[in-house]
Amino acid sequence: KAAYSYSVVPKLDMDAFLMAKATGWEEFSLLPGEANIFFEGTFVANSFIDPNNIKDTLSVSLGRDKRIVVKRDKVKDLTSKSVMGNLKKENYTWEISIRNTKTDAIKINVEDHVPVSQNSQIEVTVLDTGGASYNKQTGKLTWSLDVKPNETRKVAYKFELKYPKDKQITGLN
User: Fold this and answer.
1) Which helix (H) or strand (E) holds 13?
2) Is the pTM of this model over 0.70?
3) Residue 25 DSSP SS3
4) Given this model, what pLDDT does residue 91 score?
5) pLDDT below 50 — which residues of the chain?
């Protein structure tokens, strides 16, 4: 028996990955070693299973599912740059859309992040997390969504940067 859910980090990869989390695996007397993973009668991956390092739940990746379509776009209408005195101010809005083209509903965890400043001259303000759980130390945003068959769900988040106009900020895409 397993609980199935998808995970996606669209900033790094637009593909959704299906994960199976199995309980009761102890009754199978698994030995450490390579495993061929099959899902719905199709080979999906090789994995290494070490039952000595598994707690109560065995997590297995079942690979990419192209039937979950994910897009991450900068919302141009809500993204701006301005200069106020010695400071530059930039507002960013990102939208993530998840389309389920399967005939079954899915659960999906979506992860993204806002920048975290390590420099006291650079100020990052989160304006809207879009309903995500937000970790201030890491900047990580996490949404747990239920998506019905043939449904598209969208989430968006906004943040603002203020920094000296003589500085260059890169890596915000």
Assistant:
1) strand 13-22
2) yes
3) helix
4) 93
5) none
Rounded to the nearest 5°, which phi and psi values hold at 157?
A: -140, 155
Name the token pair of 83: 């200069």
Distance CA 51, CA 32 (A): 6
For 41, 98, 128, 153, the CA distances from 108, given in Å and listed in that order, are 23, 9, 21, 11
SS3 77: helix
Closest CA to 72 of 54, 93, 89: 93
The pLDDT tens digits for 21-69 are 888 888 888 888 998 888 778 888 888 888 888 888 888 888 889 999 9
What number of residues does the chain have? Answer: 173
Please report the sign of the dihedral spanned by the C-alpha atoms of residue 166, residue 116, residue 94, residue 162: negative
Q: Alpha carbon of 105 to those of 42, 62, 79, 154: distances in Å?
A: 21, 17, 33, 16
Which pairing describes strands 2-9 and 106-113: parallel, antiparallel, or unpaired?
A: parallel
Per-residue pLDDT, 7: 95
Q: List the structure tokens of 26.
A: 């102890």
Question: What's the CA gap between 9 and 114, in Å, rounded?
Answer: 13
Structure tokens at 112: 């993204």
Distance (Å, rounded) from C-alpha 16 to C-alpha 11?
A: 12
